[in-house]
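Input:
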Amino acid sequence: MQRALRAGLTYHEFDVHAVGSGEEAIREAAAWRPDVILLDLGLPGMDGFATLKALRPATRAAVIVVSVMPGEKDKVRALDAGADDYLVKPFGTEELVARIRAVLRRQADVTAGEPVIRSGDLEIDLGRRSVTVKGKPVRLTPTEYELLRYLALHAGKPVMHTTLLREVWGAYAIGDKYNTRYVVAQIRKKLGDDPANPRYIVNEPGVGYRLEG
Amino acid sequence: MARAVTRRLAPYAVAIGGALGITAAIALVTSLASVQGLSAVYLLLVLWLGAQWGRGPAVAGSIAAFLLYDYFFVPPVGTFAVSGPAQLVELVVLLAVALVTSQLAASLRRTHASAEALAAESRALYELATAALRSPDVTVALSMLCRRAIEVQGVSRFALVAVDLGQATALAGGELSPDELKQASWSHENGRPVGIAIRDGVVEVMRTPAGATTPAYLPLANGVAVVEIDAERAKPDDLRMLAALTGLADLLLDRRRAALETERARGLEASDRLKAAILSSLSHELKSPIALLRAGLTALAAPQAGLQPDQRELLVDLDRQATRLDRMVGDMLALSRLEAGVQLEKEVHRFADLVGSATRLLRPELAAHDLAVKLPDDLVPVEVDEMQVGRVLTNLLENALEWASPKGVIEVGAAARGGMLEAWVENEGPPIAPVDLDRVFDTFWTRRARGSGLGLAICKRVVEAHGGTIKVENRRRGPRFTFTLPLARVPAQK
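Output:
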């Protein structure tokens, strides 16, 4: 698997450094300073989740979790433990490359402190608190704006329902996922997005939402 | 006989003797000093007599005291005559007070005796109950209870029968004949007591011909008490005790049932965990090699790998097959999970969101077709398991893609109807042969050579797990799959 991935990624002109265990990954992450770490949760030796938790303070690299576990609980757990994205095995090289590019783009945006975030025709100006679609302004309520802003700050990354509830409504709202579903439906309506075929805010089933990067 | 009479008369003798003794004592005291109101001393005797033996001796003592006091101390002394009204009043008061006192003492004695009987009864029950609850084996406790029950006067037999899944078995208190078991099971099934009943905490026995030993049957929540009782010999206290014992037996049988159910649930849980573990490891074992295949094939298919175009095409074909294999493994695992009885994680969802997730997953495939989504804006949310219903929509859309004529319309729609959400997926294309309409949801049935035959079977299972139904029909344009899902009980906010 490692060999196949290394070959695939090298063809797409990434510099790949492969290690065989969680402990080694943590050491190498500090020494080699990669931009993106692909972490298979089914590691021999040190548990994948434990490695993920240990990696977070050791590196600023984006972590994409790769796993054969099809459960949504595992995705949520991985995101909770600090993963930036996840990919369920089996996947093709194209799919993997697309995910890596997305996290790299987001990293670049964050570093540049870009105040305007774009997703297709949608433009969110964080400095002026304005939202436009194809240049036309969209009027959002404060809650709707806060939710969209949080998704925009993490554009391309899956954001969990619980995170949105905590960030937008505060600690006391946790547990009522229908809140986020309702507000997202309202935002989509105002953005002219079709919920049955969304362009901007997409569902991450069992997890939450993602603003297309 | 003579001794019994002696025993019965003794208290009266003591009453009269006591009254005489007190008279002598009063005479002695008054001869030494002039003391008034000594007649009250008689009351002490009366009180003691009442407490000791009840009303009869106390009344006898009262009358003896009245006569003796009149004769020896009320002037004219030495006669039963009374000289004046004052003396008469004194005598009448003495008699009245003595009688009232005797009455009070006797009722005190009765209350005391019945309180003691009650205390003894509850002590016996308490001891039995603690012993029963302490012993880990309920049947041991039930046997103890049965042994205690036949100590009750008039009860010659007390057996307990458990009824599990319509099967009656003797648990404690001795074996039962097949006929008796049948009778017990009938009594339990119909909730009808035979020959005996409990009313207001007392056992009521329906009279049987003298000498007949027919068992009576009393149905309990989880069993039957089989009792042989001689109603002539049993006193009210005994019948109350028997009722209390039966109540305790009822509780113990409940406990036995609860223990059985816990054990059964534990077994089921363990087997569920085992199934889940096997499925999860199977999923890992099957998917890992497919993952490797796909990673390798897609890596080599990249133009940068430097292979010839026809070689790359072959790799793309192989990757497509690997993807299919992955989907079939996924379908098989999903189906076995559903059959193992998966727990639905129901939440309130907008149906449009579920459609959105499914169409996004199939976006590349759907791009070649015209997708028409017909969802009313004010559609009531549904309460479903997002992942499972997502699978239904994906499978139905894939099926539609498979059968849609080139560039044909695929329609997804929904409407609230009769308290449920009715949703459909329809594709423009050839109809399904009428003979096949009933079979499309069967496991491993497929119209095409390359299908797994599981996709629609999964749809049916998921929809039915949600309490809905799924069907297929040929419409003018092509086949339409229609299924129902439960609407959310709480309407959307605002």
